[in-house]
C-alpha cells in the first residue's frame, strides 16, 4: 500500500482553490439576500482578507520562480502584464516607490526556453 504524500501538487492546489471560490461565491450570494446593510462592511473586510492571503501566495510563487531562474519578462508573460509591471508590483522593492531598471532584459530572457 502506498503512503500518502504530505506534498501538495499543482492539481491539489487548483482543486482546492476552485472549490473554495465556488463555495465562497455561493455563500456570499445566499448571505447577501439576508444581510443587513451594516453587515456589508464586514463582508467587504472578509473578502479583502481573503484577497490579501491569495496575494501573499502569489508573491511567494513569484519569489520561487525568480529563485528558480525565471526572468521578469517570463513572469510578466505568465501574469499577462509587461515585465516592467511585474517588476514594479512584485520586485525587490514592491510597495516602495522606485523606478524599474532602465536596462533591457537580460540576454537569456526571450529565449526559446522561456517560450514554454
Please describe the structure with a list of short key phrases separated by commas or semicolons:
116 residues, mainly alpha, disordered C terminus
Describe the structure.
The structure is a single chain. With 116 residues, the chain is an all-alpha fold. It has two domains: 10-69; 70-106, no CATH class. 60% of the residues lie in helices and 0% in strands. It has four helices and no strands. It has helices at 10-32, 37-67, 72-79, 83-90. The protein is extended.
Tally of DSSP helical segments: 4
Helix content: 55-70%
Largest sheet: none
How much of the residues is beta strand, in percent?
under 5%
Supply the helix-strand structural class.
mainly alpha
**What is the overall silhouette?**
extended
Radius of gyration: 19 Å
If you average the pLDDT, what whole number results? 80
How many beta strands in the DSSP annotation? 0
**Total discrete domains:** 2
Q: Cα distance, first to last residue? A: 36 Å
Task: Return residue spans where pLDDT drops below 50 for at least 5 consecutive residues.
Answer: 109-116
Sequence of secondary-structure elements: HHHH
Amino acid at each position: 500500500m502506498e503512503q500518502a504524500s504530505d506534498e501538495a501538487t499543482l492539481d491539489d492546489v487548483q482543486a482546492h482553490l476552485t472549490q473554495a471560490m465556488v463555495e465562497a461565491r455561493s455563500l456570499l450570494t445566499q448571505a447577501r439576500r439576508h444581510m443587513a446593510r451594516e453587515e456589508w462592511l464586514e463582508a467587504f473586510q472578509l473578502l479583502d482578507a481573503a484577497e490579501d492571503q491569495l496575494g501573499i501566495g502569489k508573491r511567494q510563487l513569484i519569489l520561487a520562480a525568480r529563485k528558480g531562474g525565471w526572468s521578469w519578462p517570463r513572469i510578466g508573460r505568465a501574469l499577462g502584464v509587461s515585465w516592467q509591471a511585474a517588476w514594479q508590483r512584485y520586485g525587490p522593492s514592491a510597495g516602495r516607490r522606485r523606478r524599474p531598471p532602465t536596462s533591457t532584459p537580460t540576454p537569456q530572457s526571450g529565449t526559446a526556453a522561456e517560450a514554454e
